[in-house]
Automatic annotation (TrEMBL):
Catalyzes the cleavage of L-kynurenine (L-Kyn) and L-3-hydroxykynurenine (L-3OHKyn) into anthranilic acid (AA) and 3-hydroxyanthranilic acid (3-OHAA), respectively. It is an enzyme of class 3 (hydrolase). Keywords: Aminotransferase, Hydrolase, Pyridine nucleotide biosynthesis, Pyridoxal phosphate, Transferase. Pathway: Cofactor biosynthesis; NAD(+) biosynthesis; quinolinate from L-kynurenine: step 2/3; Amino-acid degradation; L-kynurenine degradation; L-alanine and anthranilate from L-kynurenine: step 1/1. Its cofactor is pyridoxal 5'-phosphate. GO terms for cellular component: cytoplasm. Homodimer. One of its GO terms (molecular function) is pyridoxal phosphate binding. It catalyses: 3-hydroxy-L-kynurenine + H2O = 3-hydroxyanthranilate + L-alanine + H(+); L-kynurenine + H2O = anthranilate + L-alanine + H(+). This is Kynureninase. Belongs to the kynureninase family.
Amino acid sequence: MPLTLADCIARDGGNASLRGLRERFAPGAPDTLYFDANSIGPMPADAPARMQAVLQQGWAEARRRGWNELDWLEQPAKLGAAIAPVIGAQAEDVRVADSTSINQYKLLRFALALQAPRRVIVVQRDVFPSNRYAAEGIAQAGGAELRFLDDIAALPAALAPGDVAVVALSHVDYRDSTRLDMASANAQVRAAGALSLWDLSHSAGAVAIALRGTDSDLAVGCGYKYLCGGPGAPAFLYVHPRHAEGAWPAVCGWMGHADTFAFEPDYRPAPGPDRFLVGTPPVLAQAAFAAAAAVWREVDPQALDAQHRSLGDTLIQLLDEQCAGFGIELASPREHARRGGHVALRFAHAAPLAQALVHHGVVVSARKPEALRFAPHPLTATHEQLWTAVARLRDLLQREAWRDPRYQQASV
Ligand SMILES: Cc1ncc(COP(=O)(O)O)c(C=O)c1O
């Protein structure tokens, strides 16, 4: 029996533990359905008030005293602790700071320092550009040798020479949303004496992740996507405690010094993961992220995972039933455990079709060459919205609306 609108509405009645959290987010523009959590997650409703408080009490009134009187310097650890459960980490092992690209660089270099004299970085050949660029930059400066991975099945061969320092893996492919098996990859990496560095940008805040449970070494990820930290939010980094004090950080700055305000001439790394902090934190951005952190403290990661699964499976079923025969096909794995945050479709005219959908109030994105990405946020999207979105998609496909010259210009 094909899914009906009533079935979708009924599915929205499930998952009691997340109920109520949806109301903690701002609704967005009227008549607009947002499936772009892989780009910028929804805004917690109290984010503006929190930012306003920092502007007024912190900037207008406290100014320099804000550093002493407010918790600005504690935020990297507080925000890290709030998101730790959803990535399966201990609260004290996560920090929120800098961007994902910078954290990727910092932890690649840190891994190389831990693993000397090994100097090989294994990195995916066809991956989110920054991941590869960071490794290439280190190699260009003479700090490492690169070995490219074309497929996860080739990991044993890449590790076989026994010279690998670190394997950098994107947990979820940013185009087709294929999710790697973290436990299996970590076991192979560990057996070869190497370290794992995961980019969790397309899974953190969407599905339950078990960094400690799978014995991952290092991880980074975006704060502005499913974690709802706000546009340009700082990223997170995770370092397994067995490594945190094993070497100096790659970028030594005063915020990572053992005694920041002693202004000592010599660098001494702070204990634990505080050493990975570098410079002055982005106080306003942290205030926005703190609104999301307050929500994350209440989220049961298993309930989040179940809701993500329900939304993704429903979307795939609706697409199967309503959009067959239009030259559009599922690009993501069907099995939830192998799928990351979004559901991707393959369509020859993905970019103009995405623009047509946006124009009709369904905010999705496209990535070269043919990926059309739907990323419902598990805390805010509903099954009913998916029904409406797929009905609009079907209508656009029937009318071949993607041919309209208005939709031919490139968009982010
Ligand atoms: C998988 C992945 N890694 C890294 C990044 C870049 O992160 P940042 O801009 O914070 O450096 C992105 C951005 O979309 C991404 O999708």
